Amino acid sequence: MLLPSNFEDLIDQADALNLYKKLIVQLNKDLLFANIDLEFDKETLPISLKLVLYETIFRLIQNKFSDYLNLLYIIDVSELKIRALDGNDMVKLSEDVTFLILQREWQKVWYKAKYS
Predict the structure, then answer these.
(1) What mean pLDDT, rounded, does the chain reach?
(2) What are the residue ranges of helices labelled H in 4-45?
């Protein structure tokens, strides 16, 4: 599997395989497991998904860091990828982490669709 390199590619792949709604379901499931009070409707537009998730990640980093770490653990975002990010700019960090979360969720959905 070749992982998408940006948000637009991720959404294009999900749409092409009719897996966008399953991506939202998987994200909702992991948010619930991590005890994050956020749930997306299956009809959420991709840009809204990205912005709301970004705002949530930003707030978690700023105010509830242990919840942020727990979310990364639940979703199984690569620690190496997180450590490779620049932590000096909180806005950029939140944006990059949001993409890594969506990328990992997409990976889960893609594998389930392909091998189930």
Answers:
(1) 97
(2) 7-16, 20-33
Q: How far apart are CA 81 and CA 103, in angstroms?
A: 11
Under 8 Å between Cβ of 30 and 105: yes
- Structure tokens of 61? 């980093």
Read off the tokens for 88.
């000096």
What are the tens digits of pLDDT across the range 41-95?
999 999 999 999 999 999 999 999 999 999 999 999 999 999 999 999 999 999 9
**CB-based contacts of 45: which residues, under 8 Å, 6+ apart?**
none
Residues 3, 100: contact at Cβ < 8 Å? no
Q: Tokens at residue 64, please?
A: 């509830």
Tokens standing for residue 44: 């959420």
Separation CA 44–CA 76 (nearest Å): 23
Query: Of 93, 35, 102, 109, nearest to 61 (Cα)?
Result: 93
